[in-house]
Amino acid sequence: MNWVLPVVLVSVLIVISLVLILVEKLLGGGGEKVITINDETKIPVKGDDTVLNTLSSEKIFIPSACGGKATCGLCKFKLVGGDGHLKPTEEPFISEEEREEGVRLSCQVKVKSDMKILLPKGLLNAKEYKTVVSYVKDLTYDIKLVRFKLIEPKEIDFKPGQYVQIQVPGIEVIRAYSIASDPKQKNEIELIIRLVPNGQATTFVHKAMEVGDKIIITGPYGDFFLREDSNKDMICIAGGSGKAPIRSILYALQAKGMHRKVKYFFGARSKKDLYYTEEFRALEKEFPNFEYIPALSEPLPEDEWDGDVGLITDVVDRHTKDLSDVEGYLCGSPGMIKACINVLKKHDMKDDNILFDNFS
Ligand SMILES: Cc1cc2nc3c(=O)[nH]c(=O)nc-3n(C[C@H](O)[C@H](O)[C@H](O)COP(=O)(O)OP(=O)(O)OC[C@H]3O[C@@H](n4cnc5c(N)ncnc54)[C@H](O)[C@@H]3O)c2cc1C
Ligand code: FES
Where does a domain end: 123, 145, 171? Predict the structure, then answer.
């Protein structure tokens, strides 16, 4: 009979599916699992989602500037007793040393069984904030200052230099932005956001965001922050929107009477890319310890520019002598940071004294 074969085939498929479901249930997958964090906190969770999403639904926020697409490499955690088998998507971000320590990307690892994980203590301070946009201002033709008033919780504690992540409403996009405001100002934060052509988050910020918009922010995050226990002289180098974290760092130094000698190099193409010049010139007048050195790489004739000209790396090189006991704070594109590190090292700055934030 020609109906026997199909019936047998369908029956075999049903049996295979049932066996697979049973194996999935026995070996892990959905169902309750326990994540132990730093040998202290045990959290019962529902399995099968990524570590990033699972912890986020428990209000533990790991940095994830690419929103889980394995392109930022920021969402690292340590898996205790992990087998070290990285997914191909993790490999570009995990060094050999990190692999041996069990470092993984939390957006790529699923919760299939009970897990023991290690997270930096500072990360456990990151929270989710409901905010409302309270002020928007054009700083240049492609850079905006946006102020967010915190609604719930009402205050944020952050170290000058750290960043937050904003969730773009409607399109589920998450992006990282350094806090540009005074760390003493706890009930609102300011971000400086440069428009990236066709960029998802920045197009929203520049073309659609308005005062009164409700935005979810998480943070603070990041190891790039002012080392407040150091008295070393400092060199800060930034380009474009990289001014944001340096501005926050300068607020913190100003509050302490600018007790450290600070040289701040800011690289821009032409005069129309400069902003907050008056603010930093005023700081120079107030504190002889502080020097602001804006430099233009392609000044226009109408700029009538009599300041420094050239790539920021060459300008830093020209202004710099021995850096063996100086701290460097760098902020900008990965290419700019790499080039600046080479210049600082040429002048004997030590690796441990170089802090940087890649706006990648
Ligand atoms: C720790 C950290 C702090 C940051 N702080 C700031 C900040 O204070 N201010 C700020 O403006 N940005 C900052 N950024 C960059 C920011 O997170 C976004 O990457 C950037 O705003 C682009 O987002 P988008 O969604 O508009 O672009 P996307 O939609 O992500 O990108 C669109 C296209 O543009 C390219 N692209 C992405 N970013 C850039 C870029 N910066 N320059 C040129 N091309 C790019 C992408 O490769 C892609 O092809 C920071 C990034 C990190 C990791
Ligand atoms: S969230 Fe960006 S790599 Fe995981």
Answer: 123
Q: Is-above-0.85 flag for pTM? A: yes
Tell me, yes or no, whether 339 and 256 share the same domain.
yes
What pLDDT, in 10s, does the model give residues 16-55? 666 655 555 555 556 889 999 999 989 999 888 999 999 9
* Dist. CA 108 → ligand 2 center (Å): 8
Residue 47 and residue 85 in one domain: yes
Q: Cα dihedral angle (110, 116, 121, 122), rounded to 10 degrees?
A: 0
Question: 123, 145, 170: which is the final residue of a domain?
Answer: 123
Sequence-distant (6+) residues with CB within 8 A of 117 are: 35, 36, 37, 38, 51, 77, 78, 79, 80
Instruction: Determine the Cα–Cα distance for residues 150 and 39; give it in Å rounded to an integer.
Output: 33
Q: Two tokens at 226? A: 């002012």
- The helix (H) or strand (E) run that includes residue 284 is helix 277-286
In a domain, 21, yes or no: no
Residue nearest to atom 42 of ligand 1 (CA): 196
Question: Within a domain: residue 27?
Answer: no
Domain containing 347 equals 233-358
What are 357's strand-pairing partners? 331
| Residue 114 to residue 116: CA distance in whole angstroms | 7
In terms of domains, do 238 and 345 share one?
Answer: yes
Residue type, 329: Y
Ligand nearest the Cα of residue 52 is 2
107-130 pLDDT, tens digit per residue, is 999 999 999 999 988 888 899 999
CA-nearest of 341, 320, 319, 322 to 330 is 341
User: Whose structure tokens read 């913190």?
Assistant: 252
Question: pLDDT-based confidence at 216, cuts 50/70/90?
Answer: very high
Find the 338 Cα to ligand 2 centroid distance in Å. 22
**How many C-beta atoms surround the C-beta of residue 173 within 10 A?**
15
- Residue 62 alpha carbon to ligand 2 centre in Å: 9
186 secondary structure, DSSP code:
-
> Of all protein residues, whose CA lies closest to atom 4 belonging to ligand 1?
177
Q: Is the CB of 60 under 6 A from ligand 1?
A: no
